[in-house]
Every structure is written in C-alpha cells, then in structure tokens.
Amino acid sequence: MVSQGSSPSLLEALSSDFLACKICLEQLRAPKTLPCLHTYCQDCLAQLADGGHLRCPECRETVPVPPAGVAAFKTNFFVNGLLDLVRARAGGDLRAGKPACALCPLMGGAGTGGPATARCLDCADDLCQACADGHRCTRQTHTHRVVDLVGYRAGWYDEEARERQAAQCPQHPGEALRFLCQPCSQLLCRECRLDPHLDHPCLPLAEAVRARRPGLEELLAGVDNNLAELESARMVEKEALARLREQAARVGTQVEEVAEGVLRALLAQKQEVLGQLRAHVEAAEEAARERLGELEGREQVARAAAAFARRVLSLGREAEILSLEGAIAQRLRQLQGCPWMPGPAPCLLPQLELHPGLLDKNCHLLRLSFEEQQPQKDSGKGEAESQGGDEPQSRREDGAKSERQGGIQPQNRDGAQTPKENRAQTPQEDGAQTLKEDRAKTPQEDGAQTPKEGRAQTPLEDEGAQTPRGSRSNKKRKFKGRLKSISREPSPAPGLNLEGSGLLPRPIFSCSFPTRMPGDKRSPRITGLCPFGPREILVADEQNRALKRFSLSGDYRGAVPVPEGCSPCSVAALQGAVAFSAGARLYLISPDGEVQWRRALSLSQASHAVAAMPSGDRVAVSVSGHVEVYNMEGSLATRFIPGGKANRGLRALVFLTTSPQGNFVGSDWQQNSVVVCDGLGQVIGEYRGPGLHGCQPGSVSVDKKGYIFLTLREVNKVVILDPKGSLLGDFLTAYHGLEKPRVTTMVDGRHLVVSLSNGTIHVFRVRPSDS
C-alpha cells in the first residue's frame, strides 16, 4: 500500500493489481474510467449498465450512463500506457520461442526476419541486430533510444520507456496525441487538430500539463487533509467501538453473575421453603399420630366394655345379670361420660405466596440504561480512573436512576461491594411489599452452630457485609416466597476463613442438566466422573451399567460401550482408552468398547477408586489399603502403601496435575481424613479436623493451581483445601443448589463438575483468586 502523500513507483503500479479489472479479475481491456475514478473494462461496464445508470462495484456510487453508452466514458490513457508497457515486456510475436524483428517482414517479406535482440523505446518495436544498427543510422531515427531486449524485458528501462511512451489517438491509428483543446478539454492528434478543432485554442500536452498541474496538486493536498481527518475520525470510531465492546463484555459478565446470584438466591429460598414444609408436615404428622393413638386406645376400651355387656345380656342367667348389673351400668355410664370426640385439631394447610413481581409480566429484575459516551480528553486522567476503579459521576447517577426503575446496577470496577443504596432491588414501586428482613445463613465452618432457620447465606452477606445479629428480629415471620435483594457478587463462599482477602477461587454457576436418558430403565446412580476430550465428561452410571458422554453444556454425546454385565463404578480417561472399575475387576477399554485387558482386584473392598496419572499412560487403583499402578499394556508398574500404613481405605483418588513428582490426593474412609502423598506414597499432608463435620470424606478433585475440592455428602458441601491438605473453608453449599453431592471432577482445570444423588449434574466455573 502506498503511504499518504508519497508517489507510487512505476514498478509498484506494474506489479500490483492496479491493472486488473475488479469485475472480471483479469487484465483490463479497453479501460474506461467512471466519474468516481474507478476503472473497469468497457465490456464489464456494459454488463452492469441498467436503465441508464450503473453502480460502481467498489464505492457503490450510482453513475449515469452517457447517451452513447459506456463507450463514451473517458478512456484511461494512463492505464493504457501501463498496459502497453506490460505487454511489451511480456513479448509480442514469438518465433521458435524468441521475439521476432518487427522491421524485417516489412523489407524482405514474411519469414525472412531474424530474432529480435534490441528494442526501440520511441517506436516500441523489437529489432534484430541488423535493423537495430540501421535504426541508429537514419536521419529520422538516429535520436531514438535503442536498448538491449534482455535488459528491457528485465525492467531495466521501464522509467525511460515510460517517458518516451506516447498515447495513441483512438480515431486515427498510428497518430500520437499531441494537443489539448482548451474549450473542449479533449486530447487531439495532428489529424484531429486540422479538422473540427482548427479554430479552437489548443496547447501542447507538456504546456497544458504545466498549466493544470498546480490546480490538481492543490486539490490533491486538500484531499490529503481530508484523509488525515478521516483517519483520525476512523481511529476515534475504532476506539469508541473498542470501548463499547469492552463495556458490553463487562456488562454481559455482570448480567451473568447477577443472574447466577438470583438463581442461587432462588435455590436457597427453595431449600428454605421445602425445609419449612417438611418440618411442618413432620410436626403435624407427629401430632396426628399421638391423637390417633389416643383415639384408638379409647376405642379399644369402649369396644371391650360393650362386648362384655352384650355377652352378659345375651348369655347370662338372671342371677348373673343382676349380680353384674351395677358394675356394668357404672362402667357404661363412665364411658358415656368421657369426651369421646376431642376438639378439632388445628390443621394448618401450607400455601405458597409468591412475590407480586414474579407474576408481573412488566417486572424486570435486569434492565439496561444507556449513556452517551464522552470523548477522553486527558488520557492520563482516564487511565488513573480506570486503575482507581471510580465510576464517572454520570454513570453513578444513571445507575441510581436505573435502580429506581427496577434495574440492577453492577459493582465498582475494583470489585468492591456497591453501597447499600446502590444495591439491586426487586421492583417495589409496583405495589410489592417490603422484602423479608431475615436473611438465610449457612452453618459456619469448623463446628459453628447452625441457626434455627438453617437457611443459606444470601449474597448480601458476602464480602464481609453481614448484617449484625442485633438488627435481626427474633420473631419468626411467615414466608412469603419473595426474592431477596441481591448483589452482583458471583458466588458467596460462606465460612471461608480467607474470604475477605480474596485469595481463594470462587464458583460461578455455569449450567445444570439431568443424566437420565430415554433408554435408561432405572434412575441414574452416578459413581464416577472424569474429563473425556475437550469440554466433555464421561459419566459412570452404575445403576444403568453405562458410561455416558456429555458436553459441559449438557449435550448428550452418546455412550462408551462396556462389557456385558459390567456396572462401572470409578472411571478415568487415558490416552485413547478408558479405565474403570467394576466389582472386583479393573478394565481398560477403547472408546469403541473393545476390551484391551482386565485385572482382578481384591474382594475385600466394595469399590475401587480409579485415577489417571498426569502422563496419561498409566492408571492407578486403590486396593485394600494400597495403590496399584498399571501401564497401558496391563502390567503392574508399581505398588505402594500410602504412608506405610496398610490400615487406610482410599475411596477416592486424584493426581495433582501441577506436581511433576506424581503427587496424589485420596479420601481415607478408615482414618476419616484427606491424605496428600508424593509419588512414592509418603504422606506430605493430611487433614482430619472439625471442618469435615464428622463426615466421611468423599470425592476429591484438583484444579490447575493445586487447590483440592473435597465432597462432604452428609452436609451438602464441597470444601476447599490448599495443595498441602490444609482446610481453607467451604466452596459449595446448599446455597449453590447442592443436594447430597456424590462425585466431582475437574475439567480443563477450570470447571468443577458435581453430580448429585438424584442423577443431576451441576457445572461451576472456578474463578481464580487472581482473576
């Protein structure tokens, strides 16, 4: 590309696509120039002409076609001259593969000329050596420039040939254009000059160019200034577009995180309401059972007394009846006097009351507000503002306005929680009642007492912004089913002892999907998960004896066939193969289900944890207190006892991808702990503290930075530990929709996949601590 203000060279013009038609993409033929200065073949323009107009294929400008047709458009003599030069360099007539002399046929007839070795730049003829020598000796041509043909074809004389090139008159072949008719602005040869333009003032071409060049250069300078302004405007527009895209990406992320917060709050309220419902039903059933027991006892007593009286009256003799008459009458009167039907028991039927905003079609929890983008006058100031994280005043005002309209305003850029008055609220202007003051709260870590309500912590209590206990009402309030006010924080992490420092990963909900397929005969029981290819997981469904493939978005990708009668338990993906345990056997199969080998395991263990080593060519399996490692051929590569103690029972196993030594993590059911070992089985870290809540440790997963995610099924939690096995706090709780989590796996080191006991899978994106 030629830079602005510089003149293109002849070589650039000849070697570029300047001489190609943009319509047919071939070399221009009979080039015609439109008023927009774009040049095309005459025949190509004739095909575009429609109804007296045509549209330029490049700038899309509509151009009227002259009455005489497209042939009346100006001929581009500049392009014609360049084309003549290109054709001459490419060669004309060839004889035996060599250019022939152009003068020899004129003197001695066809077929008598020799091969051309020179070229006259003035006549534009190829000459043999004899004709070239004679050309230099005649009176009319002795001033002509005759050059070597090889050098001419190589482009050595392009500039000189261009200077000596003359444009030919289209009306008089062989005549060069020499004059410019000033009134007509038309180029003339000598023949044209003598006939219709004889009385018109005409100028030689050189003189006419000298007279008109300054005006054209002045116009060109003005266009160059316009180009500079257009370039500046284009850069400003690009910067504005980049800012728009950046802000759109930021707002899109905020929308996702706010929506995730709303969903989590809704799931937490769902758990709360269902818990209240279960508690109410259990209490009512207990009271009903007590009343039923009392009524049944009274009924038995009354029936027994009545049966005895009937027997005496029907079977007794007169003396017998009279002797028992007093006792029977007294007992029957006593029974008649008892309150057989107690007062009606209070029956409180549960009713769900929804927040009015949920039923309002015009209710918008999320709403966008738009503000005019102001140009950045001081880049340094803008940079300081972007680093400081302070929003412009106009944005804050618009944010407050959008909140009053029912929208949700995001946080400041530095991630700090927005002030209380700027937090998102559900629409209360539409007649909605004041939201509940009671906010749910999860049990605190390490044995902290669970509140009576047992509710999950809301996002407003994240980032240390918890409401003081004194401000809460101790009086129980009737649940109204309303959405609580939430912030944009993507994932509260209750109980994290480093929460305020922002040093821990945080979960961002991605999606949730069921694993039951139409062909399944039973409800899924997921006992194993592992990554399987890019953004894909392999699910071991023990109940349906299947290995199912799903994408991270929940799309079903089919199944990996398993041997007949096998119920896969734990599963791991290796290089081009799948390893899984079933009963007391370890299998290695290909993705199409072909069994490569199987190995018998100890019968003393109900299930065997399987894990792929980071190299991808070995598989480890826990067997009766020790770990066995097999290679791809099925040979036992190594065997070790974690910590040198055979009294460990590993029920979950995963290798640390960040450790080149092959460190691994296991859940020890025998010792009720989480153990971290090196590649030789030596314990380098172990946790068995109160953070496990007395539960047996379950499935373990590890992210790309070595953080350990441990499943505690009994308390509906996934806790997080550092790479050395020290507990850091809760990562997922019932607040995030966990209901008896069973198995987890980490995909790409960034997505934590959690399976629940009901066969549902939740996918969370692990937000790094330094994000």
Provide a quick synopsis of the model:
28% of the residues lie in helices and 22% in strands. It has 13 helices and 37 strands. InterPro entries: 6-blade_b-propeller_TolB-like, TRIM45/56/19-like, Znf-RING_euk, Znf_B-box, Znf_RING, Znf_RING/FYVE/PHD, Znf_RING_CS.
Task: Give short descriptive properties of this protein.
28% helix; alpha+beta; immunity; E3 ubiquitin-protein ligase TRIM56; 13 helices; zinc ion binding; cytoplasm; 6-blade_b-propeller_TolB-like; 771 residues; disordered N terminus
Please tell me about this protein's structure.
The structure is a single chain. The chain is α+β, with helices and mostly antiparallel strands. Among the domains are: 9-90, Zinc/RING finger domain, C3HC4 (zinc finger) (Herpes Virus-1), CATH 3.30.40.10; 240-334; 506-767, TolB, C-terminal domain (Neuraminidase), CATH 2.120.10.30. The strands form eleven sheets. The chain has a four-stranded antiparallel β-sheet, with no helix packed on it. A four-stranded antiparallel β-sheet has the order 15-16-17-18, with no helix packed on it. Strand 20 (577-582) and strand 21 form a beta hairpin. Mean pLDDT is 76; it is low at 1-6, 92-96 and 378-502. Residues 21-60 form the RING-type domain. Keywords: Antiviral defense, Coiled coil, Cytoplasm, Immunity, Innate immunity, Metal-binding, Phosphoprotein, Repeat, Transferase, Ubl conjugation pathway, Zinc, Zinc-finger. Residues 374-384, 392-404, 435-444 have a biased composition (Basic and acidic residues).
